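Researcher: Let's continue the batch. This sequence belongs to Phosphotransferase, and it's 291 residues. Same format as the previous ones, please.
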Amino acid sequence: MTPEERIHALGIWQGPIDIVPITGGLTNRNYLVRDGAKRRVVRLGDDIPIHHINRQNELAASRAAHAAGISPAVIHHAPGALVLDFIEATPLSPDDVRRPETLARLIPLIRACHHDMARYFRGQALIFWVFHVIRDYVANLKAAGSPHAPLLDELLAKAERLEEAAGPFEIVFGHNDLLAANFLHDGRRLWLIDWDYAGFNTPLFDLGGLASNSEFSEEAERLMLETYFDRPLTGDLSRRYQAMKCASLLRETLWSMISEIHSTIDFDYAAYTAENLARFERAYRAFEQDH
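Model: Same format as before. Here are the structure tokens for Phosphotransferase:
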């Protein structure tokens, strides 16, 4: 069945529909569907165990995010399909996220995710523990005979050093994929979307991911951390944060290595792997020099 046939088969439409692909998804395929005067976003994607993606968890997180006032409403769901209300909005770019005035507006949204969503989440909840994900990715890459196999033992040893350095851990409900494009601006307010990886985690993983994904300067990182925690940055917090930022970059690198083998989406994963591996090694060297 084609994606268009799957969308028609949902059986929720009031008449003829117009379906337009939305570019950018790497773990699902997204479509804008016009149904008369209404517009909906349809996300098509099955469970991806190799990436720890569970669509029932994504559904529960999407509902909780809407209840917390930070994400659009869930209109319908079916196996492998999630239908969301469409918001007329523009995704942010890394340049947008780096602006101090934008960052000041993003922090309350991230805090709402971390501290409000758990009140609304229903059913079994997942934990997204980046160091477990890293270990699982390494095991799967070795089993698959990845061409990156000669690098894996050293990367795993670095991950173990980062896990030791990153504690003690506060636990919140994390988004765990804070790419700039997952923030939308509708002209009045900001929204946070795409809950594929949602689960309990340390807030420093989201903050490290936000900074690494949008390539923050040290000044922007300090502003983010001091705004989020509402206190001056200490050496202890800086150490734990830098360790989690490195872990975020390593996880992204291994995610891409796995995707080189398993993904069917047309994307240059090899180049993405090389880019993220270089960024991880730079961040890890800086972490070792500072700590």
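Researcher: Any comment?
Model: The CA atoms of residues 30 and 43 lie 5 Å apart.
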